[in-house]
Amino acid sequence: GENVEQHPSTLSVQEGDSAVIKCTYSDSASNYFPWYKQELGKGPQLIIDIRSNVGEKKDQRIAVTLNKTAKHFSLHITETQPEDSAVYFCAASKAGSYQLTFGKGTKLSVIP
Amino acid sequence: NAGVTQTPKFQVLKTGQSMTLQCAQDMNHNSMYWYRQDPGMGLRLIYYSASEGTTDKGEVPNGYNVSRLNKREFSLRLESAAPSQTSVYFCASSEDGNSPLHFGNGTRLTVT
User: Residues B93, B34: contact at Cβ < 8 Å?
Assistant: First the structure.
């Protein structure tokens, strides 16, 4: 089955700096790569996703890049703010699949 | 719109007791899921229902049963709870496979 590795497990940045979280996946048939943000005591919430026919996608301060050859994808957050502090999860799944495989998460702390 | 609603929010069980976790969605989604989240383990899929009337095993189905009661509701049952089932349980829904998941806020279960 699919295996998703996520790094780093914790990340601290100064407010206004950029944060990058990286994930690798094992199944070359995977074609859907979402990112979720989880705040304390709440369920994960989708922040951005990318499909394998696209190399990069942006939404304001958030961007995701995908390298299909190397089987890795990354989340980039620019101009970080304290409200960006949360746990972030990457995930991967194959076309037609209902099984989304998650990474183990990255706890991001933005220091004011 | 409430989105995905889970009940109860908290539960404490003794080993061997049974209980049912309830989940309902009001987004007219076809697919529903149950995940468990353990520290350092990310989210792991227990069972899913691709559409009303169908259910399938995920990554960690042992010790659980599910029922897709109708299009809105998907319940998770623990017949004989074990301490290893202490976890946070999340229900999610999506339009179909390989599409964004919408999560509830979780049920925190402790088995003593």
Answer: no
The torsion of the CA quartet B9, B46, A105, A86, rounded to 10 degrees, works out to -20
Tell me the shortest Cα–Cα distance from B63 to chain A, in angstroms. 19
For A20, counting Cβ atoms within 10 Å of its Cβ (0-12 exposed, 13-18 middle, 19+ buried), the class is middle
- Token pair in block for residue A41: 């005591």
- Phi (first) and psi of residue B55, to 5 degrees: -140, 150
Q: Choose the closest CB to A89 out of B40, B42, B104.
A: B42
Type of residue at A40: L
Residue A51: partners with Cβ closer than 8 Å, 6 or more residues away: A31, A32, A33
Give residue-wise pLDDT tens across range A24-42.
999 999 999 999 999 999 9
Residues 6+ apart with CB under 8 A from B24: B4, B5, B72, B73
pLDDT in tens, A48-97: 999 988 899 999 999 999 999 999 999 999 999 999 999 999 999 998 88
Please give the residue of chain B at the shortest CA–CA distance from A4.
B42
Q: B4 at the A interface (CB within 8 A)?
A: yes
Q: Give the closest residue to B84 by CA, choosing from B106, B105, B60, B59.
A: B60
User: Across the interface, which of B4, B31, B100 has its CB nearest the CB of A34?
Assistant: B100
